[in-house]
UniProtKB/TrEMBL annotation:
GO molecular function, one term: hydrolase activity, acting on carbon-nitrogen (but not peptide) bonds, in linear amides
Organism, as annotated: Actinokineospora spheciospongiae
SUPFAM superfamilies: LmbE-like
This protein's UniProt keywords: Zinc
GO biological process: glycoside metabolic process
Stored Gene3D superfamilies: LmbE-like
Protein name: N-acetyl-1-D-myo-inosityl-2-amino-2-deoxy-alpha-D-glucopyranoside deacetylase MshB
Pfam entry (one): PIG-L
Amino acid sequence: MTTPSTTPDLRGHTAVVLHAHPDDEAIFTGITMRRLADAGARVVLVCATDGDLGEALIPLRPHETLAGRRLLELERAGDILGVDRLVLLGFRDSGLPGWPQNHHPMALMRQPVGTLSRRVAEIIEAEQAEMILHYDWRGIYRHPDHVAVHRIGRQAARLAGVTSYEATVDRTHLTRLGDNAHLVHAAARSTDVPFGLFPSEITVTLRATYAELSAKLAAIVTHASQVTGEAVAHATFPDAYRFEWYQRIGPPTVLETLTEEGIAVGSAQVRP
Ligand SMILES: [Zn+2]
């Protein structure tokens, strides 16, 4: 492992990271959040739904709800990834396309984008953040809540006048690794769409150090109600998860002083 020779000092800088469900933050932006935090930046995680339609893979305690368990998991994962402040927008998981829960009045996909984007823009402004991380135009794999987060994040960035980094995955890279190398493969099968973007569409890529990939893995498996250890305990884990990819909308920010062009990092070789 190579450690960065000179890590930029990002104290005084803030990033808002907007996600749809507890666990998305670890799976799609865990390395980025950990790296920002390690550089001294303030990381504000905004989670739009409680993820209450996920299937519980472990028994819940008496009277415990899945949403309650997922909040605990989110808080623990946030600690691992260096989150300074967690904001819950309080909406319901909309479920997959065509599910009856799509029509619940509190489902995220039913909320007016204008209202929610103003709410997120107010968080950006109050925090004096200079960037927001959210999802690409497809919501990475077209989950209705992820598409909503894309629209809300894009408009909030415009209202607050900050750069948006739209998290995605490199479709070509992950396809080459096989059908189950990454959780996004199964997710995309559930919505029956191509996932992510092509390499030519990706503006910013971060590659994890060993420590960052270990933190990402720890954060992912902290979401034990959603992800089994077996789902990520495979030989391709490092190749599938050591990168995080973004399409930038707006001018570059200090985030890009943390990319491989900005600092030297070693290739990760973590094993689950
Ligand atoms: Zn999600």
